[in-house]
Design goal:
Helices cover 30% and strands 24% of the residues. The chain has 384 residues and is of the alpha/beta class.
């Protein structure tokens, strides 16, 4: 239930006229969010009004970031934002968006997307009443702490956004949420797709038995334990963990290579297991974990991951599925998915658009996010 249905419009007044900016590559999920908000906010005559009682057809703002042939760009907003409560949705990992530079078709990098985000904020000229950035996968989220003489990119990016007038930053399954210490006086929310993942799992695998005898939660590394502890606590399942043995004398592609994965936990023989992680990048570590679980005679290996990047393609996952190493992978639609991914037998997409619409609806009415941050009651009800 959204906040509008809970309280109605008589008791609660929006903070400002709601407007949503869909950055390049976010048009699909933004249109779904717009659909839900219009469904919730229309009157008995199916008409939606803004604060000034003007009828509106959409909450999406008309914005664009045109580029010159040199690759330079600018942000343009084609309608007023004065006094508006702005929510900007940005997928900085969408490499499916391209632009032309010196006659070459160039995919947009995270840096390009982040610069466009700042251009749109700058185009508002400080006239918006409030700006909230919804960045599902946090820009430079993996560069969150200093290991040697190196940059702290995530902290700098957060400070840049707040210095430009952004009041709230919303993200999902952040690699390390302690990075919010960089902006302690601003709103910073870390949401998780727990309920949506479990709902999709129950719908897609209806014959799964969710109890300690038949199902187990596995963390692929020590960093993901808190995430997995939530699943194991809510579902009342046992928890296991792999830890990575790395070769710290070598750096390959910016990181120390993993020598092997060692398992800590109860016997998995004959059980279904759910491996939970924040992202699938190349997928090598995840598939190695799945292979080791199958060697320990696990029945089915399911993978929950908020972000499926698949940076080295899908062939290795096809092979793992055909070899019986993985049974199914669940990822959200929070970031770009290559088109061929959706047709794979082993893949299930978890839709997050209604959840984000609920977050926007709640914030626009200055409501509490507590229930949305911790959906334990909804999960319990779903399982019953």
């Amino acid at each position: 239930m959204n906040i509008s249905e809970m309280h109605g419009y008589i008791e609660l007044k929006p903070f400002g006229n709601l407007s949503i900016v869909a950055m390049k590559g976010c048009e699909e999920i933004a249109s779904r969010i717009d659909y839900y908000l219009k469904e919730w906010r229309q009157d008995e005559n199916c008409i939606i009004y803004d604060e000034a009682s003007n009828p509106i057809k959409t909450f999406l703002l008309d914005t664009v970031c045109p580029r010159f042939g040199s690759g330079e760009a600018k942000g343009v907003i084609n309608e007023t934002v004065r006094g508006h409560d702005i929510f900007i949705i940005s997928d900085v990992f969408n490499y499916g968006v391209t632009f032309n530079m010196y006659g070459m078709d160039v995919p947009m990098s995270p840096d390009d997307h982040f610069q466009d985000l700042k251009r749109i904020i700058a185009a508002m000229n400080g006239k918006a009443k409030r700006i909230t950035v919804i960045m599902p996968m946090l820009y430079e989220g993996r560069q969150h702490k200093r290991a040697t003489r190196e940059s702290l990119d995530c902290a700098i990016a957060l400070q840049e956004l707040t210095a430009m007038g952004v009041e709230n930053i919303i993200s999902f399954d952040i690699h390390d949420p302690r990075v919010q210490n960089a902006i302690p006086l601003h709103g910073f929310e870390d949401f998780h797709p727990h309920y949506q993942m479990i709902k999709s799992f129950v719908k897609t695998v209806p014959n799964a038995i969710i109890d300690r005898e038949h199902l187990m939660i596995i963390s692929p590394d020590e960093g993901g334990m808190s995430r997995c502890m939530y699943y194991s606590s809510v579902l009342e399942l046992d928890l296991g963990m792999f830890y990575k043995r790395r070769d710290y004398s070598v750096v390959i592609n910016g990181k120390n290579p993993v020598i092997s994965h060692e398992f800590l936990g109860d016997n998995v023989e004959g059980k279904d297991v759910i491996v939970v992680d924040d992202m699938i990048a190349s997928g090598d570590s995840m598939l190695d974990v799945a292979k080791k679980l199958k060697e320990k005679k696990a029945k089915n290996v399911y993978i929950f991951s908020a972000f499926g990047l698949f940076t080295e393609g899908l062939n290795k996952f096809d092979k793992a599925y055909n070899d019986g190493i993985i049974t199914r992978i669940f990822t959200t639609n929070l970031v770009y998915r290559m088109p061929e991914l959706k047709s794979k037998e082993w893949y299930t997409e978890v839709d997050m658009s209604k959840y984000i619409a609920n977050i926007i609806d709640t914030l626009n009415f200055d409501g509490s996010l507590s229930e949305l941050l911790d959906p334990v009651q909804k999960i319990k009800k779903l399982l019953q």
